[in-house]
Amino acid sequence: MHTKTVVAASLLGLGLLVGTAQAQAPASPVVGATADTAVLVARAKIVEIDAKNRVLTVRGPAGNTFTLVAGPEVRNFAQIHKGDEIVARFRRSVAYVITKPGTPLPDVAVIDTAARAPAGHKPFGAVGEHVALTGTIVAIDTEAHTLSVINRQGGPVRILDVRDPERQAALKTLNVGDNITVVFTEAVAVSVEPAHHR
To answer: Burial, 171: exposed, middle or buried (Cβ in 10 Å; 0-12, 13-18, 19+)?
Structure first.
């Protein structure tokens, strides 16, 4: 629990200091892909507010307390109240589609997104990155449920963990040399929610 609380503190600084006012969910260049997704949620309760210095004292789920400074970039500081919760959500997903050699493939694409709360609302911030790349399968480990992939333009070998049982079974149908288009998405959202909100 302590680790999750520290993560929440780190993500608060990242999420609430976002400077972009709008966010759009990027369209995936990988049609028909499903994703292996992991989500981490961390919560900390606000136990004290120093409004003059914009300092929050928060308590994590294990009872440990720490302080956070909300810089001038954090909108709507006046909407934060003692007893509110800071909630950090980290989401990571990997989606991919296998294609046979010779199939036309999409180019590498990187899309960054960001958002923050409009004026008058509880503070909220989110940042995300969406990376799509196409590579060639260079190794398949059906015991460890992994695929080793190298980008078509070169670079290091990336090892993809296959968590979904259906996909794990499908590893046996793949071949070294098959092309794979992979979309990595990472997003962090941090919000201040009323104490009664769950």
So the answer is: middle
Per-residue pLDDT tens over the stretch 132-190:
778 888 999 999 998 898 887 777 888 888 877 888 888 888 889 888 887 878 888 88
The Cα–Cα gap between 87 and 62 comes to 15
pTM of the model: 0.59
Domain count, the chain: 1
**Residue 88 counted as domain residue:** yes
Structural domain span for residue 65: 2-193
Is pLDDT at 197 greater than 80 in this prediction? Answer: no
Mapped onto helix, strand or coil, the DSSP state of residue 181 is strand
For residue 147, list its beta bridge partners: 140, 160
* Residue 2 CA, distance from chain mean position: 20
198 assigned to some structural domain? no
